[in-house]
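Predicting holo structure, BV8 bound.
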Amino acid sequence: MRNKIVILTGAGISAESGLGTFRDAGGLWSQYDLEEVATPEGFARDPAKVHGFYNARRANAKAAEPNAAHIALARLERDWPGQVVLITQNIDDLHERAGHQRVIHMHGELMEAKCEACDAHWEAPLQMLPADACPECGEHATRPDIVWFGEMPYDMDLIEQHITSADLFASIGTSGQVFPAAGFVMQANAADARTVELNLEPSELSGMFDERHEGLASEVVPAWVNRLLAGS
Ligand code: BV8
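Done. Tokens:
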């Protein structure tokens, strides 16, 4: 029985919850310059602009609701007889709010803040400001707990262990353009996992998957989970 399922999600799974994707028409990277708002250099240059970008996304995420795709994955985690590991590139908390118990946020979390001086982590206030002081050490070195371009994503060793021991690897709602996440399907294939892509349209990596389901996440993900649980 295929009992270990490893899932990677991207911005496409939260699109129907009203949260913008990055590279679709009108996506975030067409409204903002990635270099200015999603790199440590951009933050050093203009922390107020970067906080403004994430404060707006934090408010949007708090106002958003999980959709049927987030809820279906939480059901899979609960009802699947084997292990389900969820890795997300997303920084929103919609998987958790859908009832998902264990989520690996490889690119960090919008609702978390951290201190660059003492590495303390705490729940981010709705609005973060450059003048905020660290609640632990008092230094003015606070930032969103988010992995920017050029920074090392979280939990990479743990993620590699999971992907290389997966029986089934599923990629949901991601364009497959950002590394190291975009490399996971190749690692899964090399480890003889079955690989499946669920996405609105073909991604950069579609040819790498054994199986593909094209459509809205709120439709194709629940259908996929129902089939898995029916056959489990
Ligand atoms: C690293 C947090 C090295 C921020 C993100 C030059 C200099 C430095 C690095 C690089 C470089 N050149 C390349 C790199 C590597 C770089 C990279 O890959 N760049 C790309 C642009 C080429 N990667 C990095 O920098 C990574 N770090 O390499 O570190 C290192 C080594 C040693 C020591 C230290 C460091 C860090 C990458 C993480 C950056 N942070 N996010 C934030 O969120 O603001 S990445 C960002 O892109 C988001 O996290 C997002 O999740 C991620 C991927 O985007 P997607 O989720 O795929 O979203 P996208 O819009 O692209 O696609 C949406 C998809 O959904 C589409 O396919 C669409 O069809 C589909 N869809 C839409 N609607 C629906 C749907 N599907 C279903 N249903 C729907 N309704």
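The chain has a mean pLDDT of 96.
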